[in-house]
Amino acid sequence: MQKIHLFEITTEDKKATLEKLIDYSTPTQSFFFFIILSIVMAAFGLLNDNTAVVIGSMLIAPVLYPILSLGMGIAMSDGKLMSRSTKTLGKSILIAFITSLVVSFLFAKGPIATEIVARTTPNLIDVAIAVVAGLAASIALVKPRLNESIPGIAISVSLVPPLTMIGIGLADFNWSIFQNATLLFLVNLVGIIFTSVVVFSLMNFYGKKTFTDKTIKEDDKAENLNS
């Protein structure tokens, strides 16, 4: 039987992973534009009780990358990466909240759709899903042949829908939906971060801290030149 080295990766793959993670979580205008698009799409899907549209919104949302980047920063004890990822994630959450709030005020009519209610009841299964999704996303990010699995993983874990429902709940003055959606998002956020920290630690990314800091500096410099 062939031995599986799940957590053993080459130096080249480590560097490629870090470059990809930093690039995909860079707080650019296009990054936040896609955050807005995904939230608008999710809001329309939730308000119209359309599951297919909600799934589509998860496919275009880039919010998973700064979360994984934060997990990587914690695993590497890299203050720069943690700070950068936290700022990107914080801005994304704020933009998502404002966007969903505006869309809800403009388009929400009638009673809350069943799709919204169904997605605002966090339980232990949601915790398990977040952990499994974090494990899958972390491994898929590092393994080149599994990179194409990331969009599917983004669908499996609820990140965009609860972010959207926070604004919808507040716009409707429905504190139950607001609180449950916030809790669901936090459960998924913590679950993914925790699992990614474990995976990246087992893969021994700590030794690439210098490379990470250099990549961040180059990426930020390039972004400043383009802005």
Could you characterize the architecture of this molecule?
This protein is an all-alpha fold. It has one domain: Glycerol uptake facilitator protein (Up-down Bundle). The longest helix has 29 residues. It has eleven helices and no strands. 77% of the residues lie in helices and 0% in strands. This is TIGR00341 family protein. InterPro entries: DUF389.
Question: What's the CATH architecture name?
Answer: Up-down Bundle
Name the helix and strand elements from N-terminus to C-terminus, one letter apiece.
Answer: HHHHHHHHHHH
The CATH topology, please? Glycerol uptake facilitator protein
**Overall spatial form:** globular
Domain module tally: 1
Describe the structure concisely:
The chain is globular. It has 11 helices and no strands. The protein has helices at residues 11-24, 29-47, 51-60, 64-76, 79-107, 114-118, 124-142, 150-156, 160-171, 175-202, 209-226.
Key features of this structure:
227 residues; Glycerol uptake facilitator protein; 11 helices; mainly alpha
Topology:
Elements: H1 11-24, H2 29-47, H3 51-60, H4 64-76, H5 79-107, H6 114-118, H7 124-142, H8 150-156, H9 160-171, H10 175-202, H11 209-226
Helix pairs in contact: 1-4, 1-11, 2-3, 2-5, 2-9, 3-8, 4-5, 4-10, 5-9, 7-8, 7-10, 9-10
